């Protein structure tokens, strides 16, 4: 009777549970909901566990708590192989492998949990036919032994994403040994750390490629690397983080003259921490890129004798992503932390130059190498005590390369000297003896608007002088827009002053034309948005991956 009572009670609880709205859903839909509770890393460059990302090891098993909700949920989960298809080097990996049955497998070895179990290696060997993704990070000697095991002796016909990294060594071979019998016909995404060579013909028809932290003695030549790219005409993303054809000119094997690799589908090119700007220019000189390619070049990439133009090849006609630049961000500063190195990026129709560029790297001759004649919008910021600020003459030279400029935006927070120098550079030249005003010599003759952020003490007389004299020369009237937490103290209401705080620049009250000292088009907007100094797509996935692998906090 007690046994019957227990059975009847259990059936009653089951009936009540089946009446819950969520349990009326078909098992397939309930399985899909459960899958959303699982931690899913990107198929290309998954975040490493060694960069202080403790949440990866915590969240990985949280979804298993669903097993404790009720018998119905346990049954649905147990009979859903796809929920058990993510296998990692943890204590319950064998259980996951057993319950996954015929589902495609995603393998993480050393990514979420360190170490390799020989038992797990043996258990995985018969299932290579089901491998869809395979990600493995290990110390050098450990990985060398693993690569020789039976696990890599069988083909992987379903494999689409592969990541293998060997770290913590400098004296082992950088050649990747044969794996999966070379039979990986569906492989699209490849990431290799440390390795500089692999069996010929292994990786073809890739869509995503990442090579990083390669051994210097094994760097490929430009010819070898172009041969490799030629086998993957469908490639969409290339990340080279201290990896690729980086040999010095004396040891490189140059390709035949006029050889170019056309990457018509390339969406993103990420080049980071190369030894010199020259090696970047040499690589780009053999590429043909579409207009839609986003290009990021970052790191401590300039040697002492190199400038900002050194990353460009002599002929940029095939780099079509550079031809439609209409907006330019020029940011000289050393904060936040990731600006301590340089970033040059082309995203859409916008060029970004961000970092602590010394004056020797940003001369007019260097900047003019970039196709900036169609630029209509320019954003400036200069805030650094570690490098010499640009003077009025320097800004005049910089403005000379953007003759079509119509809109100027100055991020003036904590940099009043730079703001005054920029505005002074916009003033027309003085004519002696006095002649009829003309547009000749006026920098940015099409400039229509000037926007300044968080500048409370900009002298009204100074901007009046610049605006009125440009107007007299035939330039459009400047429209001023100020953004700040509060209105500029000396602009509202506009009044004339007997002296100007910028008198040391030689622009005194006696040069203001009578009747033109008031600015008609001036507005104030309360500013609450963060300052934008880099593309919204920055930092890129490749940058985050690189910094995470080296335990840096960015």
Offer a few descriptive terms.
19 strands; 18% strand; 22% helix; globular; alpha/beta; 554 residues; two-stranded parallel sheet; 17-stranded mixed β-sheet
List the helices and strands and how they pair.
Elements (H helix, E strand, L loop, with lengths): L1 H17 L8 H10 L18 H5 L11 H8 L7 E3 L4 H7 L5 E5 L8 H7 L6 E9 H8 L13 E7 L21 E5 L14 E5 L9 H9 L6 E5 L19 E2 L5 E5 L4 H8 L2 E2 L5 E6 L27 E7 L8 E6 L2 E6 L8 H4 L9 E7 L8 H8 L7 E5 L4 H10 L23 E5 L6 H13 L6 E6 L37 E5 L14 H9 L5
Parallel strand pairs: 1-2, 2-3, 3-4, 4-5, 5-6, 6-7, 7-9, 8-10, 9-11, 12-14, 12-15, 15-16, 16-17, 17-18, 18-19
Antiparallel strand pairs: 11-13, 13-14
Helix pairs in contact: 11-12
Multimeric organization: single chain
Can you count the beta strands?
19
Percentage of β-strand residues? 15-25%
Content-based structural category: alpha/beta
CA-CA gap between termini:
66 Å
Counting DSSP H or I runs of 4 or more residues, the number of helices is 14
Radius of gyration: 31 Å
Unreliable stretches:
49-58, 492-518
Mean pLDDT: 81
Helix content: 10-25%
Protein name: F-box domain-containing protein
Organism: Mycena metata
Domain F-box: 22-88
Tell me what the structure shows.
The structure is a single chain. About 7% of the residues have low confidence. The radius of gyration is 31 Å and the shape is globular. The chain has a 17-stranded mixed β-sheet. 22% of the residues lie in helices and 18% in strands. It is of the alpha/beta class and 554 residues long.
